[in-house]
Design a protein that fits this description.
Blueprint: H1 20-46, H2 48-55
Helix pairs in contact: 1-2
């Protein structure tokens, strides 16, 4: 197989070389998205009729 076609096992940016602010930003974004999903899920469980009416 030609070298141009083969995919290397290396990642684009090794974890140890990533900047601390990128890691922190990724962590904060993941926590915020998880919180949104949990809040919406609890809201739908506690008030299914109201959630259905608002989403319809």
């Amino acid at each position: 197989m030609a070298e141009g076609i083969a995919v290397a096992d290396e990642v684009l940016i090794p974890f140890r070389d990533r900047r601390a602010w990128q890691i922190a930003l990724n962590l904060i974004a993941a926590i915020l998205i998880a919180a949104v999903f949990l809040i919406v899920g609890v809201w739908k469980i506690t008030d299914p009729a109201g959630a259905a009416a608002r989403l319809a």
